[in-house]
Design a protein that fits this description.
By secondary structure, the chain is of the alpha+beta class. The chain has three domains: 8-111, no CATH class; 116-178, SH3 type barrels, CATH 2.30.30.60; 182-291, 2-Layer Sandwich (Alpha-Beta Plaits). It is built from eight helices and eleven strands. The chain has helices spanning 17-41, 43-46, 54-90, 96-111, 113-127, 195-208, 247-260, 277-291; strands at residues 11-12, 15-16, 136-140, 144-151, 155-159, 165-169, 175-178, 184-192, 222-229, 232-241, 266-274. It has a five-stranded antiparallel sheet. A four-stranded antiparallel sheet has the order 9-10-8-11. The protein has a two-stranded antiparallel ribbon with strand order 1-2. The longest helix is centred in the N-terminal third of the chain and has 37 residues, at 54-90.
Length: 295
């Protein structure tokens, strides 16, 4: 009668070498086979990678993403299972399983530090109301600009003017610039020798500037100030654009003014600068006492 070897046959120095080899082989096979089985199960969706149908193509991309995630998770799962299996089956000591679980908890705790920092930072951002969904913001120091689409305790999702989506972990937001009412108000200022022709220039430029939610937000530039200074007249016209479209007034409108000024009535300028009524009131309240000016 053939008798099978006992577990003690493969045990040496408190280690069951047969169990150790089996655990390692199973872990390696799991890391290799699980991703391949996933690809085989999703092969139908993966065939849509080159499909011209956008819905089919989108499903294929999601399937690709799932495969990548499963492939990565399977490797980590194989490592974790291998560690637990080694302590549970290969080491014969009474406290080996407890030691393995403790080691696993320590590894998970170390890996979760980044997530915890994101959660703490996200909690502070939400509690202090830095911004809300729908606000147009710029995240510093990365210069990421867009409209907030989603806020979680882990990250913030933005959509840029070009339609691209951006995500950033909360712990990496060192500062945020929030556009009031989601717009960037600017003022164009210049000096002219003829006030009537200067106002006509502003009207002609307004007709040439593109308007809409992605361009000039008002139908035209509005003359906010007209001040007579000797032989010259200072004109200040205001307009608003979405964040990221400041170039419409800072450069494009400047070039148009110079090109349309065939009578050479512009004596100085034009210049463009950011302006805001609330900011002007706050600065006036702060500066007026020291400069003795009427705010």
């Amino acid at each position: 009668m053939i008798s099978l070897p006992s577990a003690d046959t493969f045990t040496s120095s408190g280690v069951n070498w047969l169990a150790l080899v089996i655990v390692i082989v199973v872990a390696v096979l799991g890391a290799i086979l699980v991703p391949r089985l996933t690809v085989a199960l999703m092969s139908r969706r993966l065939r849509g990678r080159r499909s011209t149908d956008m819905d089919e193509h989108r499903r294929a991309k999601r399937a690709d993403t799932t495969v990548g995630v499963v492939r990565s998770l399977s490797r980590y799962a194989a490592i974790v299972a291998g560690i637990l299996g080694i302590f549970a089956f290969a080491f014969t000591g009474a406290g080996s399983t407890v030691l393995g679980v403790s080691l696993l908890i320590a590894i998970i705790g170390f890996a979760a530090q980044s997530v915890l920092r994101d959660v703490i930072a996200g909690t502070m951002v939400v509690a202090e109301r830095w911004f809300d969904v729908g606000d147009a913001i710029t995240i510093e120091p990365w210069g990421m600009s867009g409209v907030v689409e989603a806020i979680t305790l882990r990250s913030v999702k933005l959509r840029g003017l070009g339609g691209e989506t951006m995500r950033i972990h909360n712990q990496h937001m060192y500062g945020v610039r929030v556009a009031r009412n989601g717009i960037r108000p600017l003022t164009i200022e210049f000096y002219v020798t003829d006030a009537v022709k200067g106002r006509e220039l502003i009207t002609r430029v307004s007709e040439l500037l593109p308007s809409g939610p992605m361009h000039l937000l008002s139908s035209s530039l509005e003359v906010e100030e007209e001040q007579q200074l000797g032989s010259l007249t200072r004109l200040a016209a205001s307009g608003a654009v979405p964040p990221g479209r400041e170039w419409l007034l800072e450069t494009f409108a400047m070039d148009l003014l110079r090109e349309l000024d065939t009578d050479h009535v512009i004596a100085h300028g034009p210049v463009a600068y950011l302006s805001d009524t609330v900011a002007a009131q706050r600065f006036a309240r702060s500066v007026a006492p020291s400069l003795d000016i009427d705010a």
